[in-house]
């Protein structure tokens, strides 16, 4: 007889763990407070235009993890998709990430790769030898002109603070390519599920050992009713936020419709500080194999996350890390709860990493049960 196991959250974390445990003979229940599965990756068709919308913001699948790529292809047909982002800044449209085209256009030049590399080295601020902030790091890499055009305003809007207050570690490598490659991601495998992420997650959850309850909020006091609980909700939320709230940024999406092709690309960033949106996304371009007369767009702005907002990006500055350590210490004492996913471990996780970690959590659980060992509260270290 298998255990009665609960997944709190029907996002990728809950679905992938739930599927594996159901396949191993456990009785799995999946609960989600939302009326749909797939968590933040949820996609649905707009009733008016038929366009597949990425409801909580655009999601592009990219990975170097062949096991994860095989896994998602078991449940969805992936079609080729390359993310090519543009940026409107200082009255022009540029190609991102900053590449040879961006540099030549920005400086009105026709440099070849080696010339551009030497030129950018002359722009970099050499007086900064030990960068302490994001701003100093960017200045040390690319100099003031490119920093102000592509990093300063965008970062201020996205994080709600000056880049002088953000750690240098955010910008680890030189954020410039000295060729014309404008594919946003480097990963070997990239694509979009033909019928959206929600259809994919529905298929992951389609197993006789899994029962799904939507529109159902789980209260931590109910945890005793289950042999084990996998919690993919907010770590601090499990404890009623009683030590304080971990800081997040939330996003507002102002949805609007248009006819035809409104902006000519999927993602247009806005680098200028005096333009309120960080970007506008046109969702029909995320499914380039489909044709629609109408179009749906999201004008995206970022702000501090309040108690009733959806938490999107964990802030993880010094203050939050201290609070995180307090919650983690408390969670480690749990014997029947495992904290998983982007909210349960308070980290930004791409979908492929989420899936890999969920696979590991499931295998850890199965091994623990097989050897009659306790299941740990975390299978990755959130700190
Ligand atoms: C704006 C944005 C864009 C992104 N773009 C990309 C991208 O392009 N590519 C990429 O690879 N990744 C992207 N990601 C990351 C991706 O969204 C995550 O990897 C993924 O959503 C994590 O899945 P999860 O199951 O851990 O969490 P979630 O998707 O957040 O699922 C958690 C679920 O738990 C439910 N829940 C919480 N508390 C309770 C409760 N008490 N009772 C019941 N249900 C509860 C929630 O309703 C939610 O559905 C992006 C993330 C953001 C924020």
From TrEMBL:
GO molecular function (one): UDP-galactopyranose mutase activity
Enzyme class: isomerase
Keywords: Isomerase
One Gene Ontology cellular component annotation held by this UniProt entry: cytosol
UniProt EC number: 5.4.99.9
Entry keyword annotation includes Cytoplasm: no
Positions of the UDP-galactopyranose mutase C-terminal domain: 149-348
Protein name: UDP-galactopyranose mutase
Species per Swiss-Prot/TrEMBL record: Limimaricola hongkongensis DSM 17492
């Amino acid at each position: 007889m298998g255990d009665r196991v609960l997944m709190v959250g029907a996002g990728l974390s809950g679905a992938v763990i739930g599927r594996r445990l159901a396949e191993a003979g456990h009785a799995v229940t999946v609960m989600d407070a939302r009326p749909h599965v797939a968590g933040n990756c949820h996609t649905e068709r707009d009733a008016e235009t038929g366009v597949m919308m990425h409801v909580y913001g655009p999601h592009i699948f990219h990975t170097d993890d062949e096991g994860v790529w095989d896994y998602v292809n078991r449940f969805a047909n992936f079609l080729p998709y390359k993310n090519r982002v543009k940026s409107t800044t200082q009255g022009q449209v540029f190609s991102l990430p900053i590449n040879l085209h961006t540099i030549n256009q920005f400086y009105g030049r026709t440099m070849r790769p080696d010339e551009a590399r030497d030129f950018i080295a002359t722009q970099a601020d050499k007086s900064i030898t030990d960068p302490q902030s994001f701003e100093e790091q960017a200045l040390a890499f690319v100099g003031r002109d490119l920093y102000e055009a592509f990093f300063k305003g965008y970062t201020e809007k996205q994080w709600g603070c000056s880049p002088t207050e953000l750690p240098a570690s955010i910008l680890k490598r030189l954020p410039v390519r000295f060729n014309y490659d404008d594919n946003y991601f480097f990963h070997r495998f990239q694509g979009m599920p033909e019928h959206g992420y929600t259809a994919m997650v529905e298929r992951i959850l389609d197993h006789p050992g899994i029962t799904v309850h939507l529109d159902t909020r789980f209260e931590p006091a109910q945890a005793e009713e289950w042999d084990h609980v996998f919690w993919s909700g907010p770590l601090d939320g499990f404890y009623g936020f009683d030590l304080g709230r971990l800081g997040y940024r939330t996003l507002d999406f102002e949805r609007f419709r248009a006819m035809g092709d409104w902006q000519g690309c999927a993602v247009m960033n806005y680098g200028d500080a005096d333009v309120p949106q960080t970007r506008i996304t046109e969702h029909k371009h995320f499914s380039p194999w489909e044709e629609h007369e109408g179009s749906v767009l999201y004008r995206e702005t970022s702000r501090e996350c309040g108690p009733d907002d959806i938490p999107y990006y964990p802030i993880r500055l010094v203050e939050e890390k201290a609070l995180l350590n307090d919650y983690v210490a408390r969670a480690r004492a749990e014997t029947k709860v495992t904290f998983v996913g982007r909210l349960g471990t308070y980290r930004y996780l791409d979908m492929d990493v989420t899936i890999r970690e969920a696979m590991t959590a499931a295998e850890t659980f199965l091994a623990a049960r097989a050897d009659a060992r306790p299941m740990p509260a975390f299978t990755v270290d959130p700190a």
